[in-house]
Specification:
The complex is a heterotrimer. Chain A folds into three domains: 8-238, 3-Layer(aba) Sandwich (Rossmann fold), CATH 3.40.50.300; 253-341 and 424-512, P-loop containing nucleotide triphosphate hydrolases (Rossmann fold), CATH 3.40.50; 352-423, no CATH class. Chain A is built from 17 helices and 20 strands. Chain A has helices at residues 46-53, 76-81, 99-104, 115-129, 144-157, 174-189, 201-207, 230-238, 297-305, 332-337, 349-353, 360-368, 380-392, 409-422, 439-454, 466-472, 495-503; strands at 8-17, 20-30, 35-39, 61-66, 69-71, 84-87, 162-166, 193-198, 210-215, 218-224, 255-266, 272-283, 286-290, 312-318, 324-326, 342-345, 427-431, 458-462, 475-480, 483-489. Chain A has a six-stranded mixed beta sheet, sandwiched between helices. In chain A, helix 12 (360-368) crosses helix 13, helix 12 (360-368) packs parallel to helix 14 and helix 14 (409-422) packs parallel to helix 15. The longest helix of chain A is centred in the middle third of the chain and has 16 residues, at 174-189. Chain B has a single domain (16-353), classed as ABC transporter involved in vitamin B12 uptake, BtuC. Chain B has helices spanning 20-46, 50-62, 65-90, 98-116, 122-151, 155-177, 207-226, 228-238, 240-245, 250-277, 288-298, 303-327, 333-353; strands spanning 10-14, 354-358. In chain B, helix 4 crosses helix 10, helix 4 (98-116) packs across helix 11 and helix 7 (207-226) crosses helix 8 (228-238). By secondary structure, chain C is mainly alpha-helical. In chain C, helix 3 runs antiparallel to helix 4, helix 3 (66-94) packs antiparallel against helix 10 and helix 11 crosses helix 12 (258-277). The termini of chain C are far apart. The chains are: A alpha/beta, B mainly alpha, C mainly alpha. Chains B and C meet through strand 1, helix 6, helix 11 and helix 13 of B and helix 3, helix 4, helix 11, helix 13 and helix 14 of C.
Chain lengths: 512, 369, 328
């Protein structure tokens, strides 16, 4: 803004994790006294980029300069020395400590530990910017918003001039968000620089001076917020439409199979995850679920699968003869005992869907090990199944006795999907089924889902790539912060429309 | 790349998996290294050359037929406890209460012998002792398991404390049963009638014990590897989330598995009283409850490896005993050697699970697996 | 009649080794290291002190210098326990081996070391009884406070050797450091949430090493106190018994607070010897049941803290877990 030398300048930053390129040759300037939005979809590399500024990661290549001086930032402490502080999405706080203890933790101040004096300083910071923190309150007694405030105060207490906030509003109510934004504006007035990582367009518009857009690890562009609009930002964020040519056979005789009504779910720490969700999944079609990650997709699928306690609402399974069964309050075993064949491909493949240290055969057994009489497991059938899956889905593995952890991501997913399909389900739930997979494996998965659809299975596909959702799914339910933003027709929906619905409740028309 | 990039001198990353041949080679190397260190220490303590030290040790372990039988008996006891620990550890439940579970088994066995020795036939008595010791051992392990399953009470410390409750209980009954009065010892129970004593197979006193333990080991191997329960245990141990995902009742599995674990410990107590010692003391388990934990852990639940590790430790301790007797050291010398060997094998696990990258060199290789 | 004047000193003398062990283990656990090797460490601490004293008494002949007689065993004890601490740290912190496994192996090893050297020394002295007496050294260790008289008060509070007071001081100082100082705050952060502490710029490895080693040295003093003061300089194998485990139990009982441990250790010491003072007539057996009390009480405390009545009373959150920064 005012000055020509940027406060922070990142040049040609590249960072890889194994084979995944998180940031690819990104350059970015941050100027003193501005509020900058870093905009991008999930997995676009926003957080990774900022983590390199705050000393969590070290870039593979590239140069960071502070006020024109080249620097290396090897640890969070060195970042603080340069006046950079980051507020992470997962708070780094010690639960049994008080706010003041957390704030002074790791500081090398002169003299003995004086929490009273620290408390006074904390109050002063709070007065300056309009926070409300009780230095003596324990973290575990605090709300999420209070914890976030502690994190911000912690950074300010260390004299940071540049604050990076990673999706700060994801956990806040609208009122708390307004309060946070007011604080951020006060900081800006005080000459501080603020970077906010977000994917919510209205927040970009509400708070920032300038916006930088990343997509798939790459720098796409930047503009002044006052000179752009939601449409342009959405375009830059999601990119141009790509022709994928995924098959979408017409649904044959779609009948309601799962009816979810007024479903409300809270997480164990009492955060509202799903709010009054109502929809119907039909046999013989693929219902896509779109949304920014963490908007309740996981809870929705787990609630249907019997893994998530439901606060209110109903989940009904509709048999072919029209009779209905309530799935709420039943665990996976009871659901199976009711004769409901429900398969679930969870997001966490090796932590939930499969056991990494077990081989293919044993993983096939996860679903079937109870079958058969007697105390012994039948290994022949799962072994045959494993061999069949390996052959039909072209799983690249040394054999069926290889621990699945050693397989590549695509092959792990084939094993998981293969097992879930083998149970000949009537409902197939899948979460991020192609995440981290190469093109070929992805297409194998799409084909498998389509095949299930043709066989009359009600397929629920939670996805993150809008292009895929639009080409694969018959209908798309868009979630936004745990609520149904709308349900659109897959063939006729427009990508931008869905993109807007993801970030703003009811951002588009609903057609059901 | 910027010149200012600094990397730490040593960079440690987790390995994904290592072929079993390689991991066993590393363990073997560590055992050899440990034996060398032990030889140096023994030489320092005795002034002997290392070869004759090991010669003496092997002599002590295998020198006579009697010594071999004693070795077999000792190995059987340690193996039995390790086998008992195996299902709990496979589930990642730290059962450090083997000592107490064994002792409580010895206690109930001794009680049966003392109170019922002259009332029921010996065969029935033995049967009753087996059942009672298994049940009581299972209860002793089941209590901490229950609290772990229901309230996630720390099982490490709970099982540890249960050991001492058992020890004091045994101490109480020793005084009640002491014979002759005032000796502080129970003495050989039913020496005249041999009621409740396990019969010798032919002239081999310890053979039955060894066979029973071998049977238990095989059964446990089959149980863990081929039964539905064993499968559930593995899933719960690897990932409780996966277990819930497929509808396994985690708390029930925890309790059931510890009942099995404690039951076998109880059986081990029975074997000690009925099969070998025919008496009861508070030190009958003699730290083997803990050593069994280490054996199970080192063997990574592989029963064959458990046999080998138990044998190795018993050979060492018998061998060190021989050295102690001959060269006027004391018996605890064996504990020191055991300790050293354990530290080496334990330390070697690091090299199996982690990879060390030196600065500069293998930067590219880091993410290769 | 319950003889309180003789009960209290005995309870306290029983309690002091527990207090050392408990304070040491607390320091270690506050950094996240559950050191089950403490019983072994206390044996090593005791025997190293005995070796030091033995060698000094042998070389000094008749004229034992009081200062050296205290200093040499003390140093020997501290060095021995430090080595054990380093061993535990190396294996669990640097090599990230499971703490329970290392702890148990250390206990086996430590008890073995104690009994081996103890046995060897006994053999060296050629005595008839299976013990070794270092009465010259013990004299200096068990000397009561100089201003103590012979009244009941003096007997109950001023009659102990200096290590007893050191134990109490260490416990209170540790409590103060943990609660009130920057070092304590950072140490607790390491044990609660190493990732957070790491992000705050605290050197996790350094803190864990220091806490574990210092913890071992403090615990080792418990072994030394036991031999030199409580047992009047007489080492006999296995005499130290299960006090090390009891010290670990005491940590839970005191909810990781060394200042509470001062009183709790005396209470445990009292429970440990209560059987001697409760009139049970000739019934020796019941006395054994009374010895169960400390453990039962610990189990009950464990169950209740496990039911999460209060977050402050929980074990350090990362207790027993190795820290590996790259676990993402």
């Amino acid at each position: 803004m005012g000055s020509n030398t940027p406060a922070v300048s990142m040049r040609n930053i590249t960072k890889t994790f194994g084979t995944i390129v998180a940031n690819d040759d990104v350059s970015l300037d941050i100027y003193k006294g501005e509020i900058l939005s870093l905009l991008g979809e999930n997995g676009s590399g926003k957080t990774t980029l900022m983590n390199m500024l705050s000393g969590i990661y070290f870039p593979d290549s590239g140069q960071i300069s502070i006020n024109g001086q080249p620097v290396t930032i090897a640890s969070p402490r060195e970042a603080f020395d340069h006046g950079i502080g980051m507020i992470h999405q997962h708070f780094k706080l010690v639960d049994v400590f008080t706010a003041a203890e957390n704030i002074v933790l790791g500081l090398k101040e002169e003299g003995r530990l004086d929490l009273t004096r620290a408390g006074e300083r904390i109050r002063k910071i709070c007065d300056t910017y309009g926070f409300d923190v009780d230095p003596k309150q324990k973290i575990y007694n605090m709300s999420v918003s209070q914890k976030q405030t502690v994190e911000i105060v912690k950074v300010l207490y260390r004299g940071a001039d540049i604050l990076i906030l990673d999706e700060p509003t994801a956990v806040l109510t609208p009122q708390e968000t307004d309060k946070l934004f007011a604080v951020l504006r006060n900081m800006k007035k005080d000459g501080k620089t603020v970077v906010i990582i977000t994917h919510k367009l209205h927040e970009v518009e509400a708070i920032s001076d300038r916006v930088v857009v990343l997509r798939k690890g790459r720098y796409i562009g930047e503009m002044k917020t006052s000179e752009t609009n939601a449409q342009e930002m959405t375009n830059m964020m999601v990119g141009r439409e790509v022709a994928l040519n995924i098959d979408r056979p017409a649904p044959v005789d779609p009948r309601p199979r799962i009816r979810v009504e007024n479903l409300t779910v809270r997480s164990s720490d009492n955060v509202l995850k799903l709010d009054d969700v109502t929809f119907t999944a039909k046999a013989g079609e693929i219902l896509g679920i779109a949304g920014i990650s963490g908007c309740g997709q996981k809870e929705l699928l787990e609630a249907i699968a019997g893994l998530q306690p439901v606060q209110s609402g109903s989940i009904r399974y509709i048999n072919d003869d029209g009779t209905e069964e309530n799935l709420v309050g039943k665990d996976p075993l009871k659901i199976a005992d009711m004769g409901v064949s429900l398969s679930f491909v969870p997001e966490d493949r090796l932590g939930m869907g499969l056991v990494g240290s077990m081989d293919l055969t044993d993983n096939m057994m996860l679903r079937s090990f109870r079958s058969g009489k007697g105390i012994f497991t039948d290994r022949k059938t799962p072994r045959k199944l494993a061999e069949k899956v390996v052959e039909e889905l072209e799983v690249n593995t040394p054999g069926v006795s290889t621990p699945v952890r050693r397989l590549s991501g695509g092959n792990v997913q084939k094993v998981l999907v293969g097992r879930e399909i083998a149970a000949s389900p009537t409902v197939l739930l899948s979460a991020y089924a192609v995440r981290g997979l190469d093109i070929n494996s992805s297409y194998t998965i799409y084909e498998l889902l389509n095949q299930q659809k043709k066989e009359g299975v009600a397929v629920v596909y939670v996805g993150e790539d809008l292009d895929v959702l639009l080409e694969l799914c018959d209908r798309i339910l868009v979630l936004c912060s745990g609520r149904v933003s709308g349900i659109v027709d897959g063939a006729s929906a427009d990508k931008n429309q869905v993109g807007m619905m993801m970030t703003r409740l009811g951002g588009g028309a609903s057609d059901e | 790349m910027s010149k200012a990039n600094r990397e730490p001198l040593l960079h440690i990353t987790k390995r994904k998996a290592m072929p079993w041949q390689q991991s066993w080679l590393i363990r073997l190397i560590s055992i050899v290294a440990a034996l060398i260190v032990c030889a140096v220490i023994t030489t320092a303590a005795t002034g002997l050359d290392p070869m004759s030290v090991y010669g003496t040790m092997l002599e002590g372990a295998f020198g006579t037929e009697r010594k071999i039988w004693v070795l077999g008996k000792e190995t059987a006891v340690l193996l039995c406890i390790a086998v008992a620990m195996a299902p709990a550890f496979r589930m990642k439940f730290w059962n450090l209460g083997g000592e107490g579970q064994v002792l409580i088994g010895t206690l109930i066995s001794a009680a049966c012998m003392i109170y019922l020795g002259d009332k029921i036939p010996s065969g029935l008595l033995i049967l009753l002792m087996v059942v009672a010791s298994v049940v009581v051992g299972a209860i002793w392990a089941g209590i901490p398991a229950f609290f772990k399953a229901k309230w996630n009470t720390n099982e490490t410390l709970f099982t540890l404390m249960m050991n001492y409750v058992a020890i004091q209980l045994v101490a109480y009954y020793i005084i009640i049963w002491e014979s002759p009065k005032g000796s502080g010892k129970v003495g050989i129970i039913n020496q005249s009638t041999n009621a409740g004593w396990l019969p010798s197979l032919g002239s081999y006193q310890y053979l039955l014990n060894i066979l029973i333990v071998a049977l238990v080991t095989i059964l446990m191997f089959v149980y863990l590897k081929y039964s539905k329960h064993g499968y559930e245990i593995s899933v719960v141990g690897e990932s409780q989330r996966t277990a819930r995902y497929v509808g396994i009742k985690v708390d029930r599995v925890i309790i059931r598995t510890l009942l099995v674990s404690g039951g076998i410990c109880g059986l081990c107590g029975f074997l000690m009283v009925a099969g070998t010692d025919h008496t009861i003391t508070t030190t009958l388990a003699g730290g083997r409850g803990f050593l069994g934990v280490l054996v199970a852990w080192l063997a990574q639940f592989n029963p064959l490896a458990m046999v080998l590790v138990s044998l190795l430790l018993c050979v060492l301790s018998r061998g060190a005993g021989e050295i102690s007797t001959i060269y006027g050291l004391n018996q605890s010398f064996g504990d020191i050697l055991t300790g050293i060997i354990l530290f080496f094998i334990i330390g070697s696990e690091f090299f199996i699970n982690y990879k060390i990258h030196l600065r500069g060199g293998a930067r590219k290789k880091g993410g290769s697996n | 009649m319950f003889d309180i004047v003789s009960f209290i000193p005995r309870a306290i003398m029983q309690g002091i080794p527990l207090l050392f062990g408990c304070t040491g283990e607390t320091i270690s656990e506050k950094s996240g290291s559950l050191n089950l090797g403490i019983p072994g460490v206390m044996y090593v601490g005791g025997i190293c002190g005995v070796i030091g004293a033995f060698l000094y008494e042998q070389s000094a002949g008749g004229n034992v210098n009081g200062f050296l007689a205290v200093l040499i065993p003390l140093l020997a004890c501290l060095i021995g326990s430090l080595l054990m601490g380093l061993l535990f740290s190396l294996l669990t912190i640097t090599l990230r081996v499971n703490q329970n496994v290392v702890g148990l192996a250390m206990t086996t090893f430590g008890v073995g070391v104690g009994n081996f050297f103890g046995g060897s020394l006994i053999k060296l002295t050629g005595s008839d009884v299976p013990s070794i007496a270092l009465s010259a050294t013990s004299k200096y260790f068990s000397k009561g406070l100089p201003f103590g008289g012979s009244g009941a008060f003096s007997k109950m509070f001023l009659s102990y050797g200096f290590l007893a007071y050191v134990a109490v001081i260490i416990a209170f100082v540790t409590a103060y450091i943990l609660k009130r100082t920057r070092v304590g705050l950072q140490l607790r952060a390491v044990g609660e949430n190493p990732a957070t502490a790491d992000a705050a710029g605290i050197n996790i490895t350094k803190y864990k090493y220091l806490a574990t080693c210092i913890g071992c040295m403090v615990a080792g003093l418990g072994g030394l106190y036991y031999v030199m003061d409580y047992a009047s300089g007489v080492w006999s194998n296995d005499a130290f018994g299960d006090r090390g485990w009891l010290a670990i139990a005491l940590v839970i009982f005191t909810l990781w607070r060394p200042n509470i441990a001062v009183f709790a250790s005396f209470l445990f010491g009292g429970l440990y010897i209560l059987y001697l003072f409760i009139p049970t007539g000739g019934d020796m057996a019941v006395k054994e049941l009374y010895k169960m009390l400390p453990y039962l009480v610990t189990i009950i405390v464990l169950i209740f803290t496990g039911m999460r009545n209060k977050r402050e009373n929980q074990p350090p959150e990362s207790l027993g877990l190795p820290y590996f920064r790259e676990d993402r």
